[in-house]
Inverse folding.
């Protein structure tokens, strides 16, 4: 639905860093995923995101923090964090929207370039996992009951496991 690239430049405390994106339209209600990728190198970037409905004035807020650090210690290389992150917003109504982005980063350092992509109708795995769990419940219960029955039956046998003659 929307994608653009932005730059975060460390500035003085009096400078406003937040901005709004151009508007985009969601033709039908559905799930929205906001993907953020950045060119981080031993740094971090925090983003306060608000998906604002232009007609109603309502907003859905989300926060993303990306950090990526790497180096060499004791002759072995290490890395932690990621240059990418995403947030899922369920049940977003149709309408015209824009993103309000408020970036924050380290007070000193180099400029960070980041990309924000908004995708609609992204499937959520939660309903499918719940359905799978519900479908697996009867076979698990049946297997447990059958196992208990077989154990009791073998205990009554002359050849029960774990008994000595």
């Amino acid at each position: 639905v929307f994608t653009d690239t932005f730059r975060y430049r460390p500035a003085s405390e009096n400078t406003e860093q937040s901005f709004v994106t151009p508007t985009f339209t969601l033709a039908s209600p559905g799930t929205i995923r906001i993907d953020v990728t950045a060119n981080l190198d031993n740094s971090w970037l925090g983003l306060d995101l608000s998906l604002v409905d232009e007609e109603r004035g309502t907003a859905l807020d989300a926060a993303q923090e990306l950090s990526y650090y790497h180096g060499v210690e004791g002759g072995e290389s290490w890395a932690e964090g990621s240059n990418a992150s995403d947030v899922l917003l369920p049940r977003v109504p149709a309408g015209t929207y824009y993103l309000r982005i408020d970036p924050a980063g380290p007070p000193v350092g180099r400029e960070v370039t980041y990309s924000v992509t908004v995708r609609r109708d992204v499937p959520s795995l939660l309903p499918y996992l719940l359905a799978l769990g519900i479908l697996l419940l009867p076979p698990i219960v049946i297997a447990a009951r059958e196992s208990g029955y077989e154990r009791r039956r073998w205990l009554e046998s002359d050849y029960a496991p774990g008994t000595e003659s």
Summary: Strands lie at 2-8, 19-20, 24-26, 30-38, 43-53, 59-73, 76-82, 84-92, 95-104, 112-120. The chain has one helix and ten strands.
